[in-house]
Design brief:
By secondary structure, the chain is of the alpha/beta class. It has an 8-stranded parallel beta sheet with strand order 1-10-9-8-7-4-3-2. It has a two-stranded antiparallel sheet with strand order 5-6. It has a single domain, classed as TIM Barrel.
């Protein structure tokens, strides 16, 4: 039986954006009104830890923790991070342990309960569909995060920024509470390396888990065919993402990939052949530049179930962007001054990254130059084999001499930005430094602004998630 035969599929999928821009509040609203609501898995452990340190004023995190099936883990995390009165003014956040191939028990426990919490809150008193979006690039968080989401009965897992060949089998294993070994990309490796995760460590083996549906986020028909040809790698569907989508984009396929304006240049080689995607027999959605009623209809006319929309939902009242960022983006939309650039070198991943030019953020060259480089969150660190043996970790966003000492070599390293700290600042959880400075945000948005401009004319002061859905389903 195919996925489309099992139940009616939503024609709108809300994007899993940034670090907690796709909040549980946003996902729940989309889900409750017929779409697929999606929470972001990226750095979810830091998000939950920092919210706890800020006092969990609404009590929502602790309410979710009270439903976690292992209360000793819930108590442990509260002991480490919860501050009933919130942080003292000017006090920095206590960081969570960095991800590694041999994670501490606290690392896995925090990842599991954090993913559980975000999904549980999105599904609380809600019969709609909830998904979680993870990045293939952040492999070291994948097993614990997805298992935690499954404990909260997540309906879908979405993954892009890489080739997620092992995820379908991993989800099947987790449905049976089986231990897994995820192959991890290690630079300079002379042998294969694996990240082990055993659900028995969480001690919830008696629970009945259901394998969620898996949607692979891709940009090429070749990758669709590759993933679909084998049962072990076959997803339940695809999200075919175009180059105008916000956040990370797939690297361009042409050799001449940087234009005269310094931006990543995409060509026809980067467009997926949808007839070949359809030949896989799997349902698919289109993303990147489809956020209008007309484009929803056009996507369906091309054989898609519907569309995935990010930027419109990123500006919704329920998203995680700070009110200041939303208001500035809305003002720039209204005055037609919103400028989005595709930077080839900003992301430590090496993937192109969409950046909005806003003063007071790291899009400002002087602000970027003034920031002291560090890598204290480390989600985008890459493991590497040291020449003398053992595993090290490096990131182009760390101090240049440190990166080079670890064997990192990139002529563009000096332009790499610390996305981890900047995206935490986007949602009001930026780190405070000992010199009194605060980490600055870096805002990402899709480069196709047609839908956002149209919606801003209807709702100039902003909009809700439901109003986005109503707009997309409106008939002109």
């Amino acid at each position: 039986m195919s996925l489309t035969q099992e139940f009616e599929l939503p024609d709108v999928i809300q994007g899993g954006m940034g670090i907690a821009v796709s909040t549980w509040q946003l996902a729940r609203e989309v889900s409750a009104h017929g779409g697929l609501g999606v929470v972001s898995a990226t750095a979810i452990d830091s998000v939950i830890a920092r919210r706890l340190q800020d006092g969990d004023s609404t009590g929502e995190i602790r309410r979710a923790f009270a439903s976690f099936p292992n209360q000793s883990i819930a108590a442990e995390i509260l002991h480490f991070y919860f501050n009933d009165n919130g942080r003292n003014p000017g006090a920095p956040y206590l960081d969570v342990p960095k991800l590694s191939l041999k994670p501490a028990k606290l690392t896995n426990n925090l990842l599991v309960i954090s993913a559980f919490t975000e999904v549980w809150l999105a599904k609380e008193n809600n019969s709609g569909l909830i998904g979680i979006n993870a990045l293939e690039k952040i492999q070291l968080a994948t097993p614990a995060t997805l298992y935690g989401a499954m404990l909260a009965k997540v309906d879908y897992v979405l993954m892009g920024a890489g080739i997620p060949t092992e995820i379908p089998e991993l989800l099947r294993q987790f449905a049976d509470h089986k231990a897994v070994k995820l192959a991890v990309d290690v630079s300079d490796a002379k042998s294969k390396h694996f990240l082990a995760f055993d659900p028995a460590q969480i001690s919830v083996a008696n629970l009945n888990l259901v394998k969620p549906k898996f949607l692979a986020i891709i940009s090429s028909h070749a990758l669709a065919a590759y993933l679909a040809k084998d049962e072990k790698t076959r997803p339940d569907g695809f999200i075919v993402e175009g180059s105008s989508a916000g956040g990370h984009n797939a690297p361009p396929r042409s050799k001449d990939s940087v234009g005269e304006d310094g931006q990543t240049k995409f060509t026809e080689l980067d467009e997926a052949d949808l007839t070949k995607v359809a030949k896989t027999g799997l349902p698919f959605w289109l993303a990147g530049g489809y956020g209008t009623p007309a484009n929803l209809a056009a996507a369906k006319a091309q054989g898609a179930i519907g569309i995935q929309v990010g930027s419109l939902f990123a500006l919704a009242d329920e998203s995680g962007f700070t009110r200041t960022i939303k208001d500035e983006l809305l003002e720039k939309l209204a005055t037609d001054t919103l400028n989005v650039k595709t930077d080839p070198f900003a992301s430590p991943t090496g993937f192109p990254f969409k950046i909005v030019e806003i003063s007071g953020t790291l899009s400002d060259a002087s602000a970027f130059d003034d920031r002291a480089r560090n890598c204290d969150l480390g989600y985008l660190r890459v493991p590497f084999e040291r020449p003398q043996g053992g595993i090290g970790y490096r990131c182009p966003g760390e101090p240049i001499k440190t990166y080079e000492f670890k064997g990192g070599a990139s002529e563009h390293n000096s332009r790499s930005k610390c996305l981890c700290n900047a995206l935490m600042a986007d949602i009001g959880l930026g780190q405070l430094r000992v010199d009194g400075s605060a980490e600055l945000p870096l805002v990402t948005f899709g480069s196709d602004l047609a839908g956002a401009k149209e919606l801003s004319k209807i709702h100039p002061k902003g909009w809700t998630a439901v109003q986005v859905l109503n707009f997309l389903h409106s008939v002109s």
